[in-house]
Amino acid sequence: MKVLVIGGCGFIGSHVVDKCLQEGLSVRVMDTRPELYRPPLPGVDYVFQDLSDHHRLAGALAGVDAVVHLASTTVPSTSNLDPAADIAGNLIPTVRLLEAMRASGTRKLVFFSSGGTVYGIPAKDPVPEDHPLNPISSYGIVKAAIEQYLRMEQQLHGLEFAALRPANIYGPRQAQVGLLGVIGTYLRKVSDDEPIEIWGDGSIVRDFVHVEDVADLCHRALVSNASGSFNAGSGVGTSISQIVEIISQTTGHPVQPVYKPGRNFDVPRVVLDIAKAQATFDWLPTVPLHRGIRETWDWVRSQSAS
Fold first, then answer.
1. Closest-CA residue to 69 (of 120, 122, 110)
2. Does 139 qualify as catalytic in the annotation?
3. 139, 149, 186, 259: which one is catalytic?
4. Which CATH code of 3.40.1440.10, 3.40.50.360, 3.40.50.720, 3.40.50.300 fits the domain covering 2-170+209-233+273-282?
5. d(CA 210, CA 72)
6. Digit-coded pLDDT (tens) for 216-264
């Protein structure tokens, strides 16, 4: 199988590429720039172009059996600043991608949606995939809309798709830009002796899952015939205050957070029900939170030393 990984030079994408190579798949990566933290991988075909450049998609899709789509121009905290740009940068290019895949005959897609935003404020805990989709950020609205286009493409043109709805993914090689990734951002700030900022009182609860576990699920979805939407989390809720405590223990640096006003797009609690992914793909996350944070801390320190 030859796989095109769109966004394969990013944090999650780079781990998906690693997993695909480990499992013997042929990999082409499409991204706008090379990886930040390591040189190009031998045997990987790199294509540097923007997903919005739909005129060049045919070349990127040539000879490809399946696509993994991880690219996004926004995160939840930026998407509401300009929803029209979110639509233009993410929804429209993905619809163009589906058209290009249809023309090329590529009928398999794994799309990275969002388990943290498509449900909105959950009415169930943990949240199953059949929970109503009531997102309160443009990011979540666009992800949910793309899933609907995937279902339309399946119904009308036979697309096989798996829409993965990840929880809060963390792990090595996550860029620390302060916009996405609480664990990585906090570890970097501890390493740099900078204060940690918490939006709200620290009671917000999230489902944290290691990037290698998500990459494993992505590969399982690629080689399966199953279609639909699947949560990708740990199934366990951890508050931001608990994350700070674990980071303090792991790093040996007592952390005194700076508390800032809560944000209206932050859902109070999201924990994902992962039973469907377990039953469909025989998948369960294997990296415990304490170990994952330790591994991520070791990576952050290695970057600081280099």
1. 110
2. yes
3. 139
4. 3.40.50.720
5. 20
6. 999 999 999 999 999 999 999 999 999 999 999 999 998 989 999 998 8
